[in-house]
Design goal:
Largest sheet: none
Strand content: under 5%
Number of helices: 25
CATH superfamily of one domain: Tetratricopeptide repeat domain
Shape: elongated
């Protein structure tokens, strides 16, 4: 039973009189019995006074070397101090017949896994489970291990055995099973378990996983319902917005998709994916000015975003804003062949044919199987008087696209 003086000191700390409470505990510790000393160590750990807790536990361990409660507490303190190797040493001293042996094995497995020693972690859990095959906490620990290491099939098998387990009422096994089933590609069954799990307790991650799984099998209305509920619970959950917009778009609700993305941008204004999606959807509703706005926002944040740059150039091509395209793309660092073709085409429209030819020559190796490119390049060469080069390009283009009647007629007329 907790010392009354210690209770009083705890009340002081919890009521804001921190320094007075801690000072009282330090005085109490000088003459405290071992049980009270252990309680103080646990309080120190809870309050972030890890070094002080460590000193007490080391003293207690020297007096009781085999006490597993002290050893477990010491191991957890060592973890707080980033001394995982020392924590492992303490845990390894706990005897197989000790009441805390299984808990020690679970913690050891966590430590081994954190160090990348997955085989050692798995072996610890399997061996411990052999000793107590009907211990649900061990089965759960092993299922969690398999889930976090991508071994979904093994995790599914174990989680199935834990459905309805009274000792694990605090864990939503239905949702955990749903998640690994989804990872395994068993989307239909995963949805059923997501439904059951969410009926037990609403979970924002569960709702998100439910929506992701529903989209996999094109149940977009289900995804929309789950994500709208998630948005109501936690509008700051920014990853929901692109997924919800996709579901709306798949349902043909473009306006709703666009409004969703706009809401997402308010939550996460630096999210380039959302800005790009906003631009794409704005183009679908014929709002090119808004699309340009979002694309410029992306490029202001990340000038190297090629996707955004291509979309912006496409809009300016439709507007025949060729001088603006040249301003955007006339950069010695530009290496993307598609963008360079856009730049060459813009130079053609602005009658800067020699500039255009220089770029065509630079990228012809990338497009020597593209009839449209070869024809365009040939036209520039022809206008600049390089007729032999032009004829060669026209001939290659016609071989790739024999149905081009205009080019065929032109070549016949020249010949």
């Amino acid at each position: 039973m907790m010392n009354e003086q210690l209770k009083w000191a705890i009340d002081l700390v919890e009521n804001g009189q921190y320094e007075q409470g801690i000072e009282h505990i330090k005085q109490l510790l000088q003459n405290a019995d071992e049980e009270t000393s252990f309680e103080i160590a646990m309080l120190y750990q809870e309050w972030g006074m890890v070094q002080e807790a460590h000193k007490i536990l080391i003293w207690l361990q020297k007096r009781h070397p085999g006490d597993s409660h002290i050893l477990m507490a010491l191991a957890e303190i060592e973890i707080d101090l980033d001394k995982e190797d020392q924590a492992i040493e303490w845990l390894l001293t706990i005897h197989q017949l000790d009441e805390n042996y299984l808990s020690a094995q679970v913690l050891l497995a966590d430590l081994y896994q954190a160090q990348g020693l997955e085989e050692a972690a798995e072996r610890r859990l399997i061996n411990a489970r052999k000793l107590t095959p009907n211990e649900p906490l061990l089965t759960f620990a092993l299922a969690e291990f398999y889930a976090t290491t991508g071994q979904s099939t093994h995790a599914v098998e174990l989680y199935r055995t834990l459905i309805g387990e009274p000792d694990l009422e605090h864990e939503n096994i239905e949702l955990k099973l749903a998640e690994v089933l989804s990872y395994s590609g068993e989307f239909e069954e995963a949805l059923n378990h997501y439904k059951k799990g969410l009926e037990e307790a609403t979970s924002i991650d569960g709702l998100f996983g439910y929506a992701v799984t529903a989209i996999q099998i094109k149940q977009f209305r289900t995804a929309i319902q789950a994500l709208e509920e998630l948005k109501d619970i936690d509008p700051q959950y920014s990853t929901l917005y692109p997924l919800l917009a996709k579901a709306y778009e798949e349902e043909g609700a473009i306006e709703e998709a666009l409004e969703t993305v706009k809401a997402g941008i308010k939550v996460d204004e630096f999210n380039e994916q959302l800005l790009l999606e906003a631009a794409t959807l704005s183009m679908k509703v014929k709002d090119t000015s808004m699309a340009e706005h979002y694309l410029v926002e992306v490029l202001n944040k990340d000038p190297e975003n090629i996707d955004a740059l291509k979309k912006l150039v496409e809009i300016k091509r439709e507007k025949e804003a060729f001088a603006e395209i040249i301003s955007l793309l006339d950069d010695e660092q530009m290496t993307d062949p598609e963008l360079l073709w856009y730049l060459a085409s813009a130079y053609v429209e602005e009658d800067a044919l020699e500039n255009a030819r220089d770029i065509y020559q630079q990228i012809v190796a990338h497009f020597n199987e593209n009839a449209a490119f070869l024809k365009e390049y040939g036209e520039v060469q022809w206008q600049l008087g390089a007729q032999d080069e032009a004829m060669s390009l026209f001939t290659q283009a016609l071989a790739l696209d024999p149905e081009d009647e205009d080019l065929l007629a032109f070549l016949e007329r020249i010949e």
